[in-house]
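Check out one such.
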Amino acid sequence: MSVIGDRILLATDGSPEAESAAGMAVTLSEKLGSGLHVVCVEPMPDPLSWPESRVVAPELGGDIRERAEVEVRKKLEGEAEKIRKMGVEVSGVHAGVGRPDAEIVRVAEELGAGLIVVGSRGMGPVKRAVMGSVSGSVVHHAHCSVLVVRDHDGEDSPPGGILLAVDGSGQAQVATEVAVEISASTGSRLHVVFVMPAAEHLYGPHFYSEEIKGSVREQAEGDVRAFLDERVAWIEDHGGNVEDTHTAVGKPDAEIVKLAEELRVGLTVVGSRGLGGVSRALVGSVSDSVVRHAHGPVLVARGEESQAT
């Protein structure tokens, strides 16, 4: 059974970023044998943000919504036709009016989609540090995995290289399963990375001699090598093919983004904390940061945790 499931939801708005997302969604739909659904949402203005909200005629809201519904249906049919011309059948089209992030998540939950594919603006360093985009909100609140597609300078896109970040957590195992499935189905080469903490985090606030520090570091490096060997064995036992493993030291998000750029991979796969409800709205996890700062597509894997066997 597919880890991603039999339904992929592509969120599109007709922008260049959405076109890039559509290309990846079509590829994954074909390779994984998953049905491709398309959702398009026409934003509605928030009356509470209007200074004149108290004097606007109530019927105006209905008129705006009616116009928005007409516009989004027309846009949606155009986007669906583009996908059909790529040679892929569209399993379903879904029009929404309101907050794009909320509507995308709602449709995905109603469909039982295993993956949402959404485009993201290729912003610079400062803007990328500010959360609040549609793609960022979808990553936070979706019940399933989310692929955020951003144009990048790399030469590869699936079936190109895939960078999988692992840390031994349950959601990293979900990410591993997703990466293996995509790698095997697309013929993409797979790289696996584990990021070790910097020295000050490894030793803690206590004073140790250089000899003890060296011993602790050596033990930690040995543990990481053993863990990566185990991961490679699991991946190959489940049909994956690992081209190389990598270890890094420092902040996980920064090191993952850096390595993805160095390897010029077409996709980076990271695990989500899999938080529910209120907790999912909190910002600050490694996956959040990788999505904000990566130059290429990032898949944040979220799903039912399983034991690596």
